[in-house]
Specification:
Number of strands: 21
Number of helices: 23
Oligomer: single chain
Length: 618
């Protein structure tokens, strides 16, 4: 026994159970993904939609563009591929007969006025929650439309504008007032909001400025900022780019820019196609397949690119030509106009310590002819509106300094979140900030914490039945999300088409339901080992107590169960009391697929399947 490796264990306590539902634990707003996916599998779409929307007022939007950290964490990915959580969210949002919140503002509450500056995901989420709490909310937006980066930064082929409009209107229907075309620092200042009677303010101004690239030729005509390019295209303005376009950057914005360039109308080409004939269809397809050259240059290798892999693949399918592991050296021009981008081979992007420190290969120059060069290397916040009298502290990164727990700024009654406080992040993180800001503002104005509204729909799995032995959910492969054929991707037509009902229910059936756990009653268990023998993945083991390496909490728990001092237990763990015949059941969580065979096999009913159903955080 001395030669056997110690087994590190952790108690299946409430903290473990919470973290073990990885999709929910990883989601910034803690969406009960396993819950609504299980409901989809059962065809209960209205309940599934309500559960998905409860923590996320922009659920339909996120079903299309979310970076889905839940999928990255999904335990099904250990078995084969993660569950398509994002695509299933889109399915249930489209399938629901009624959209919007299931709760209305409390009619008796006419609380203080609260200002929200910025109608992006953080601002909209804050406005939604504040309105439900009874506050009179006004959202101030500098652009002519609401949505922030959702509208201005994400191309329409990924996120149709009617989806944004529908979810914005659902929030406005709660009594939220929206004022567009008014900019902080131009039309009003923070002090003005206080004078106008706003008791608190949430700043969600985003990251609207493109990061600069200081290389020779940056000042030439034909050099554009990626953020500005997308903003103008998404607002309907024509941007002349010429036939040869080079995009610099390896992130999602760079991919969006490159794919948008392919879709933008050429000079002299009408945007209106009232009679789309076969000839026009073919001509546009030819344009997308090579009549216009779009190149993407990035420092990273293909594997290192920070953009979503599937977006990169789609860009290549559409004709974008990748030049990876190449760094921009200078922009060449003639008569003040761009003619080419000169690049240099990159040997490595990061140094031995993992820091960003590109190493370039000498004498490895290459020039790419270009009519336009678009810089898409990141965004930053524009805080030019901050005045000394505002009392706002700004970080060295030029973001608004906040308490990360409450999002309070250095100015009393002023909160900030989203990109303005943390730099560019994913949309669901901004939504989480908006919800946290609403909670903090509510506490600030009421003087104490109050419970928010309860979870609207509890997951109806209290009985926690084991799966049927004939269930083959673990054999179902991930269902591909249908997309528009490449040759038909004309204009801003949406590329991803979403699941039909059959595919959605099949994909939903793949969920391992990590909220279910086989549970052992130690008073009933007879240590027959039947559960261990029947487990198809070898998840369960019965081992002598002395093989366990327990942390402090686990050791105390076991000592309490065995009615002995923890010091005596530690002696057993160290092998000093081998005469004691104590046995521990351990479970390898990475392998368990919740098949329930252990429950079926147990001859005395000591093994049961239990559901852990935490409420969705308000």
């Amino acid at each position: 026994m001395a030669n056997q490796q110690k087994l590190r264990v952790r108690l299946m306590d409430a903290a473990w159970l919470q973290e073990n539902i990885r999709c929910q634990f990883t989601c910034p707003v803690h969406t009960n993904a396993g819950g609504y996916i299980t409901l989809i599998a059962r065809g209960r779409y209205e309940e599934a939609y309500r559960l998905a929307r409860e923590p996320n007022p922009l659920v339909g939007i996120c079903g299309r563009i979310c970076a889905h950290p839940c999928e990255t964490a999904c335990r099904r990915g250990v078995l084969d591929q993660p569950v398509a959580i994002c695509a299933l969210k889109r399915f249930v949002a489209e399938r629901s007969a009624s959209q919007g919140p299931r709760l209305a503002p409390t009619a008796s509450k006419k609380l203080e006025k609260v200002a929200v500056v910025g109608a992006g995901p953080a601002g909209l989420a804050a406005a939604h929650d504040l309105a439900l709490l009874g506050y009179r909310v006004t959202v101030f937006e500098a652009q002519p439309v609401a949505g922030g980066a959702l509208y201005l930064g994400i191309p329409e082929y990924r996120l149709p504008r009617d989806i944004i409009q529908a979810e914005v209107e659902a929030i406005l229907a709660l009594g939220v007032e929206l004022k567009t075309g008014v900019a902080l620092g131009r039309d009003f200042y923070l002090a003005d909001l206080k004078q106008q009677g706003y008791a608190a303010t949430f700043l969600a101004t985003g990251a609207t400025r493109s990061r600069e690239l200081n290389i020779p030729g940056r000042e030439l005509d034909g050099v554009l900022a990626g953020v500005d390019f997308l903003l103008n295209v998404n607002l309907g303005y024509r941007v002349e780019t010429g036939h040869r376009v080079v995009v610099i950057g390896g992130g999602n914005v760079a991919i969006d820019v490159a794919r948008t360039v392919l879709r933008a109308p050429m000079a002299g080409e009408s945007e209106e196609t009232p009679d789309l004939t076969t000839a026009v269809d073919a001509a546009r397809a030819a344009l997308r397949m090579g009549a216009r050259e779009v190149h993407l240059v990035c420092l990273e290798s293909r594997e290192e690119m920070p953009a979503f892999a599937h977006e990169v693949t789609e860009a290549e399918r559409e004709g974008v030509m990748l030049h990876t592991s190449r760094g921009p050296r200078r922009i060449l021009g003639k008569d003040g106009r761009v003619t080419a981008l000169e690049t240099q081979r990159v040997a490595s992007v990061f140094d031995a310590g993992g820091r960003f420190n590109p190493t370039l290969v000498p004498d490895s120059f290459e020039a790419l002819p270009a009519d336009t060069v678009i810089l898409a290397i990141g965004q930053a916040s524009d805080l030019s509106w901050v005045r000394e009298e505002d009392g706002l502290a700004v970080t060295p990164r030029q973001t608004i300094q906040v308490d990360p727990a409450t999002l309070a700024t250095s100015a009393p009654g002023v909160y900030a979140g989203g990109d303005a406080a943390f730099g560019p992040r994913i949309a669901i993180a901004a939504i989480a900030d908006g919800r946290q800001a609403a909670k903090s503002i509510h506490q600030f104005l009421r003087g104490h914490a109050e419970d928010r509204h309860p979870t609207v729909v509890p997951l109806p799995l209290a009985a926690a039945p084991a799966r049927e032995p004939t269930d083959t959910y673990h054999l179902i492969p991930r269902q591909p999300v249908p997309t528009l054929p490449t040759g038909r991707r004309i204009g801003m037509a949406e590329v991803e088409l979403g699941y039909d009902e059959q595919a959605a229910r099949m994909e939903a059936a793949r969920c391992l339901q990590c909220f279910l756990n086989p549970w052992v009653d130690p008073e009933t268990c007879i240590l027959c080992g039947g559960c261990v023998d029947v487990c198809p993945y070898g998840c369960l083991k019965l081992v002598p107590l002395e093989r366990v390496a327990a942390d402090e909490d686990t050791a105390r728990f076991m000592a309490d169960r065995l009615s002995m001092p923890v010091e005596q237990l530690r002696g057993s763990l160290q092998g000093a009391m081998r005469g004691m015949d104590w046995t521990v059941m351990i479970k390898d969580e990475e392998k368990c697929i919740r098949c329930g065979l252990c429950v079926e096999r147990c001859p005395v009913g000591a093994m049961t399947m239990r559901a852990y159903l935490p409420a969705t955080p308000a």
